UniProtKB/TrEMBL annotation:
Residues 691-865 form the Protein kinase domain. This is Protein kinase domain-containing protein. It is a single-pass type I membrane protein. SUPFAM superfamilies: L domain-like (SSF52058), Protein kinase-like (PK-like) (SSF56112), RNI-like (SSF52047). GO terms for cellular component: membrane. The chain crosses the membrane at residues 634-658. Belongs to the protein kinase superfamily. Ser/Thr protein kinase family. The keyword DNA repair does not apply. GO terms for molecular function: ATP binding; protein kinase activity. Residues 1-36 form the signal peptide. It is found in: Membrane. The keyword Repeat applies.
Amino acid sequence: MESKNPSSLSLTLSHNCLPLTLFSLFLSLTFFHGHGQEDQILLKIKRQWGNPPPLLSWNSTSGHHCNWFGITCDSNSIRGISLSNQNITEKIPDSICDLKNLTHLDVSYNYITGEFPEVLFNCSHLEFLDLSQNYFVGPIPSEIYRISELKQLNMSSNNFFGDIPSGIGRISGLENLYLHYNQFNSSISPEIGNLSNLSELLLADNPFSSANILPEIGRLKKLTFLWMRGNNLVGEIPDFFGNLTEVRQLDLCGNRLSGKIPVSLMSLKKLEFLYLYYNNLSGIIPRPIQALGLINMDLSINQLSGTIPEDIGNLKNLTNFALYRNKLTGEIPLGLAQIPSLYDVKLFENKLTGVLPPDLGKDSPLYNLEVSENSLSGNLPESLCASGYLDAIVVFSNIFSGALPESLSNCRNLRSMQVHLNKFSGEIPAKIWSLEFMEVMMLGNNSFFGQIPAILAKRLTRLEVQNNRFTGNIPSGISSSVNLTVFKGSNNQFSGQLPAEITALRKLETLLLDRNKLSGELPAKIESWESLARLDMSYNELEGTIPESLGSLPSLNSLDLTNNKLSGEISPEIGKLRLSFLNLSGNNLAGKIPHSFDSPAFDLSFIGNPALCGVIVHPCEERTRDSGNGLPGYLVAILTVTGIFSMVMLAFTIATLFHRRKIFSGEDPANWQVTSFQKLGFSETEILQQLTENNVIARGGTGEVFRVAIREEVVAVKKLSKSEKRNPENEKDFHGEAKILGKIRHSNILKLLCTISGEESELLVYEFMERGSLEDCLHGGQGALMAWPLRHQIAIDVAQGLCYMHHGCSPAIIHRDVKCSNILMDEEFRAKIGDFGVAKTVDKLGQGLPMSAVAGSYGYIAPVI
């Protein structure tokens, strides 16, 4: 073999290495050139996004772009942009996909509007896309499959609508799909079953067209989390769920599913969270339960029957167990007490019998126990609070008996104890009254006895001990419970005087101490009952006069002092109260009834006070004195002249006022009559004075609506036109409407405060709704504020109002004209039903009555504000 000399070899190597060197140089130049381009692309994106403040660091003087805010890189090339919650308002820039290596884009929790950004179709390597919590609208484009490398797509909490297109089923690598909290209102494409790698599918709270659960979902063998709450699902739960062996969380609540729960569902070994509540499921709970990994199980608000499975005790990981509002019978299994992680038990509103498991709470961190409205009996277990975690005992409306467990005295975290409507007896363990965190003590309708101790829990908000056998004084120490809003002590054997300290409770709204043996005088000075709305001290042995200070209570709406030994005159200050209920019957009161209560509305309020006089009892006697009896002649003359002059001036003043009122009312103000349904903070004169052209906010076929501001209160006043008033049928309808609407008390129905009737016109005074009608909000300038969760809440508000009208009113009220213009919105977008123009009531036989009582055409005209 011939050898080469060194110089020849060197030349050969140099010749062979030259292409490699040139190639390396080319790669280096390309690398630096590409990264220089990424800088410029980011700066362009910044400009197209309107230079938002969070992107101030995106500039050529801030060092390498991989260190800029929100940027992540790999091998010095941009892989991710994360700009969550940065107040971005502009659409996604067209140049975003010029970043050829971009795999991760997160613009969640911003204010981006418009339709799905189709510019993203050019991001060929995008794997993670998060558009959640923005204001996107419109359908998902069918070509979304062009973002073919996606593994996670999050478009939740926007305003997307339409269907879930078939194109999504072509993104074969998709693992997580989050579309919850939108407005999808069509269908889910069956092609979704092609997503063989899908692990999490979240579609909750979308109003899809009514449909069965897609059979194709049964093909998603890797599915671990399926969330289809509130998707308008119907039919039965299919058996194929038993084949989804990887499922850990299944949520189908809030639909209209019916039939039985499939046995296969309870055989999923990896299932941890099962939520089927708020459907129409029936039959028994499947057994055996082989899903031994269950942590949360909620089958509430269905039509389930039969017993609770005995093998529930095998679920050693179970923490939350809810079966409330079903038709379950039988006893609570003893095994429930053997679950070491049991934390929250809700079995209320069933037909359960027997006793609570004796060891309940002994071996678990029990936090909440709710078994109310069943037929459970026996004692409460001593071990309920063995762990010290117990927060609430809610066992009312059963037939429990015996004394409360002494061990509850050491239940340091106990906040709510609702044991009313049972057959409990004995004394309340002393320490329970003053537990540090106690807020609610509802002990009413039992046979408890003993005394309320001097020291009560400082956090107490509700104390109900009515219909028991408590004795002794009301302790002055009750004033230390500064958050107390309700104190019900009716029908006991309390005695002594009502302590003055109780009047210092600023938040007290309800005080009921009727049917006791209280004596002495009511506190003469009221320190601060600024929130008190209802006071009932009837059927006691109270003496003295009615304190004048009661007249200063701004919120008092109901006052009952019936059947005591009160005497003296009713102070004119009491007449300043705006009461919907007053009863002072069966006392020894004397003198004149205050003018504001001397009307037929209070004709039963003063019975059994023979020394009282007024229009509604018997007229007060005219007491005249002989002008010459004991008076000098010159004084008689002076008084006579002065009297005549005063009468002339009074006549002139009345004439002036009459003339002024004629301007806005067209009739004698003396003929106006007020019928109040709520506590009023104004008089009819104050209303009438503001019925001017400048205050008109709406006009309709039956009259006008005025916006009237009186001090800190704003009301809406509907004034019927003269022609409408003179129609006898319409006048009958008006009074019928007022009678019915005035009795309605519901937070989602427009509140009628009072009516003011005159000879030629009628006024309806309503609470004022700041944002006008729902129609105004949707189509006016406020539509942008109404995201889907808010619209969902508005729908719930309306449904609750209608439910009350249909089932909570007697007779029932059928509105018959529910539309956007008849739904009124307050400042916080709470919805209330108004304008009962074509409503009907339904009698007990279920027949519709075309009822003037609900509103003819005289309801509220929505103000356009």
